[in-house]
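Changelog note: in this version the structure field was regenerated for every chain. One regenerated record is shown below for reference.
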Amino acid sequence: MGGSKANLVKLSGEHPKEECGIVGIYNVEEAANHAYLGAYALQHRGQESAGIVSSDGEHLYRYAGMGKVADVFTPTKLRQLQGRHAIAHNRYSTTGASFLRNAQPIRFESRLGTMALAHNGNLTNANTIRHNLQEQGSLFQTTIDTEVISHLVARSRADNFTDALIEAVKQIRGAYSLAVLTGDTLYALRDPNGFRPLVMGKKDNGYIFASETCALDIIDAEYVRDIEPGELVVVSPHGITSLFPFEKSSHNLCIFEYVYFARPDSYVFGKSVYNTRLRMGEILAEESPAAADLVMPVPDSSSVAALGYSRKSGIPYHMGLIRSHYIGRTFIEPDQKIRDFGAKIKYNAIRSVVEGKRVVVIDDSIMRGTTTRKIVKMLRVAGAKEIHIRIASAPTKHPCYYGIDIPNRSELIAATHTLDEIVKYLRVDSLAYLSLEGMLRGEKETERRGKSGTRGYCTACFDGNYPVSLEENEADYSNQKTLFSEYAVEEHT
């Protein structure tokens, strides 16, 4: 018998890809361990690489690697990350290729000292800034937009780091939540529009910053408040200071955080993700009822919305699909091709639940429609009598330029096909989306934690109304070579 040739198959998911997760720890014993736990809780926000930079007040120690948090860090590596201060980052690339040199936090040295930076978001003018800096002789070590911030800080003529950082961020546009660490100071910053979330907590005599509150929960930190859009919080040996260096701007919080990205147990933008997702599911049932025997989610991000749909409609809730939680980035497919292989390694239908039944399938979004079509086929094979798809968000018709990997408009099925055409392509009995008004109503009707105020949301991926101008198309710098080796602690086996 001849040798077998393995085929490596990557899944291109139906859902928008996660963004990034950031954590900041200040004045907490074993800061690197706490940063590790916070990043572990935020693993859903990025699985390509993970990194931690710690500080003992003078020196910064860095380690980063490709893969998930638990795979990158060992007890030995964490022990080398000394000090009571640390920042951590989980990465999913929206700009820059998936290579180790692009792992964050990035670390660099300038006349103002050593600095490390972790970024969640996407800068809409990064390529223009990068080109101008290169024309002036700057050398870049990575292909990520985040690095332009470090160059702008280093080139500032300000006589202190805080002013240099403010000068730098006033030159960038787009979405950014930042955690910045110097020897004895931690900075936490949100862009003036507030696209990406960032919360502050307290643990003993120290402070914690994170993308979501679930990172506070895992380390027993007390939630204090959200960092406000356009706010810079500075924590140093002199205490904690809040600055607002930007001009007033409209708030454009990412509504997709509630739909898909954030963990249900988190509070994001001051609202319970679980309660908001539940309310959106209820409103979906009001707007688009269906005569059916059961309601089932496409797990896991749609489970809460499906529960809301079931509760409002009175149709029993069941788990009609099981999702595998042990999927890596790459798979070996047998030479004898298995139909719908990519979908089958992730989902499997429960025949005893769906056979002979009229089912309402709740999903959070549809991008290309390919995975949804395969799930529908699974349910048909398992004996489902009728299949009614209900989507707990509005039709996604536009790409995102603020830190979410949503495909180009030409790849989005809702942008290129009518509702009837999508129904035909998916081979379902009916399809309906939650209206954009219903999404915003779901958020509005969820109780807010902490103080209330005027809130606005970015809905560009649904309606094409981009709140921050786009200077350029995304450029591909993935072939650019790094000129210097990365700073890293020594790796021991």
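Spot check on this record: Residues 273-287 form the longest helix (15 residues). The chain is about 25% helix and 25% strand.
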